[in-house]
Inverse folding.
């Protein structure tokens, strides 16, 4: 099986259509509840929409203050005013949580004009078009819980005549972040990152070893002429004297006492794998 990324955004160097509005999905949305008489240029939502959203967000393990439902007397002016205040507080908590505010469910509720598309279906179409020239491959299933970016979806591919052949090994323990959060990579993102309860830091020797290995891999790639943009040495360096501006080099970081005394033997198993 093979994991592929079906990016539903623009391709690299692709020119956006003149009529297309480019959105930054990382900018959190804000919302203010107003009276039903002001409907022009507004998004209309019922209590049931908030209730549906709240049920979907239960995966995060957070206690969100959604006002309770009421079957009798729900048209009373005092009750409506109290519910409006409660829903506003509910939205304020969601939009100030950096993980929930970037959740696709929240984006669809607050901005349906820009987030109404089925991004999984769009990505599936792009993946299928790419593999049209490779008839031996077929889509096995979408991997819904990998990652958190709205317009980035993943699919499991397989060879038709060899469906059980593994071309890419799956790391059952997950990433270093999964190790710190004591998370399982197949669990939903919201469950183990939004409200972590079992964070476990690494020992100093592990931090030194991991850091030295990451820097060594980056230096190897740079020495070979392959820049790697997902990891970088940062733009500032903290010291006992001050926060010094300037971009530190990987070679300089490898000479720091925290990493320089770590000796890696050829028999030691590699701790990290960086995707290309």
């Amino acid at each position: 099986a093979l994991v592929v990324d079906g990016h539903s955004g623009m391709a690299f160097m692709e020119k956006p259509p003149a009529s297309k509005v480019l959105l930054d999905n990382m900018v959190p949305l804000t919302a203010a509840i107003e009276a039903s008489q002001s409907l022009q240029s507004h998004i209309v939502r019922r209590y049931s929409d908030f209730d549906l959203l709240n049920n979907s967000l239960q995966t995060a393990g957070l206690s969100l203050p959604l006002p309770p439902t009421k079957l009798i007397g729900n048209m009373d002016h005092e009750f409506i005013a109290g519910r409006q205040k409660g829903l506003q507080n509910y939205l304020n908590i969601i939009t100030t949580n950096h993980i929930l505010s970037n959740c696709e469910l929240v984006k669809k509720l607050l901005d349906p004009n820009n987030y109404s598309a089925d991004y999984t279906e769009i990505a599936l179409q792009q993946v299928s078009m790419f593999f049209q020239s490779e008839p031996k491959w077929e889509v096995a299933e979408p991997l819904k819980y990998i990652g958190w970016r709205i317009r980035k979806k993943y699919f499991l591919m397989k060879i038709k005549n060899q469906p059980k052949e593994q071309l890419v090994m799956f790391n059952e323990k997950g990433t270093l972040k999964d190790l710190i959060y004591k998370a399982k990579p197949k669990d939903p993102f919201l469950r183990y990152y939004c409200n972590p309860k079992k964070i476990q830091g690494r020992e100093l020797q592990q931090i030194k070893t991991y850091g030295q290995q990451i820097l060594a891999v980056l230096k190897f790639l740079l020495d070979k002429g392959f820049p790697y943009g997902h990891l970088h040495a940062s733009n500032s360096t903290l010291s006992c004297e001050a926060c010094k501006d300037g971009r530190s080099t990987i070679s300089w970081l490898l000479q720091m006492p925290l990493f320089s005394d770590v000796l890696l033997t050829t028999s030691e198993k590699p701790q990290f794998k960086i995707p290309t």
Summary: The two ends are 18 Å apart (CA to CA).
